[in-house]
Amino acid sequence: MSAPPSSGKPILRFPDQPQYSGFMKPCRLEGDVSDLEVHGEIPADIDGTFYRIMPDPQFPPFIENDAWFNGDGSISAFKIKDGQVSFKQRHVRTEKFIREKEARKALVGKYRNKYTDAVELKIRTTANTNIVHFNGKLLALKEDAPPYSLDPETLETHGLYTFDGQLPSLTFTAHPVFDPKSGEMICFGYEAKGDGTPDICYYRIAPDGKFLEVVWLISPVVAMIHDFAVTDNWVVFPLIPQLCDIERMKQGGEHWQWSPETPLYIGVIPRHGAKPTDVKWFRYKNSFPSHTANAYEDASGNIMFDLGLSDTNVFFWWPDAQGNAPEPSSIHTQLTRFTIDPKSTDLELTSVEVLQNNNSEFYRVDDRFATQPYRHCYFDLMDPALGTDFSAIGPQLGGGYPLYNALGHVDLSTRETEVYFPGSTHMVQEPVFIPRRGSTKEGDGYVLALVNNCVTMTSELHLLDTNDFTKAQAVILLPVRLRPGLHGNWVDSEDTVPRAAGTSH
Ligand code: V55
Ligand code: FE
To answer: Which parts form a coiled-coil structure per UniProt (predicted)?
Structure first.
């Protein structure tokens, strides 16, 4: 399937591989559809836009078995007002996207390996992992580069965004944390001085875009740091035991390799006024930290750090040095709580509690409670016992990423879970929480998620009221199939800063 880039001949079809098959076929559509079909009723108080992003390659790759994570970022915007929904979708005009469009073929090679490229680019990011609203701009994020900024209304790309030159790091996380009280955006970059460097750059940005603080740290290993956590006084960096080796990359190998010998390192620094030497690297047995749900401090000053945790390599497409990776359906990620005493001199973590037993991922909370004590968590889960008809839809699922067949809500005060099952031939994507207008009560509102209908092979939005979580209030139908994506966020029409900054609770 693959041809060397120097051959110059465009490849005109996507490889016959799971990550390009069934629901995973690239979508590649840019366009607008006003007034989507609505079954049921969208409550009149919902007024805003759901933005989400997916990796969606513009051109077939010239490298073997390209990872899903390497597709060009494409943004879907669902604007909801007066019970009606309009849809808009655009690719981010990255340097990669523009150069490849001119060439009418792929020029950039492997995921985060510039040594496999056919041309030299200044910035080779795909900007494909998260889309956040900050200081009047949409920022398309991928952890290997600065953000790209876009117009929130038109989705037109303005360009690479370095906060008017303030950004000191070459990289910017796809998972910034927004403080609901101050409106601050708390960020970091890893491999912050370039591929293979152990440097982590931590920075806080005021709601007006001004950098408030920059701290440089050194990581014990050059590992992926995909997500992190923030409390009032602490910042927590979980290192995924997927390690980078620049020599392997120069030989055309993968950026990442799973390391079964590496512990789960969790770095902790003070949120304000940290010195590089303040970092403590806590340790736990080799395991895979996935997305953060939330973090906060309890009355005794311990950090409650809630995240998905698996004892095997979730990124099975990046195996260990021997080529070993778990069978995808065997991977079980659970919502787990580390209790960390940031003052402790004993760096072995022992207080670890499973909060929810299902195989789950893509945890979201009422963002007005981010960094604070909280009670409600929403997530994707996979439970074959719910009745998914795998024999009917198996051939449509494609592959190369984990699958989820239901939405969950766990009440952390009772540990009870409610499940929304979207149908026996449907898969779910990441949910977002929408507060009910006028209510400041945690979890009072709606949950919205994109759903893959594997019979019609089109996408749907399912909208739930948190007072009646197990049923959909509305199902919104798209006339097209959107490729599975990563992350999204709700932006209320009244928000001038993201995530309801200034809301008291
Ligand atoms: C993730 C996704 C990425 C990536 C690194 O979900 C980590 C995790 C879509 O790209 O580059
Ligand atoms: Fe993520």
So the answer is: none
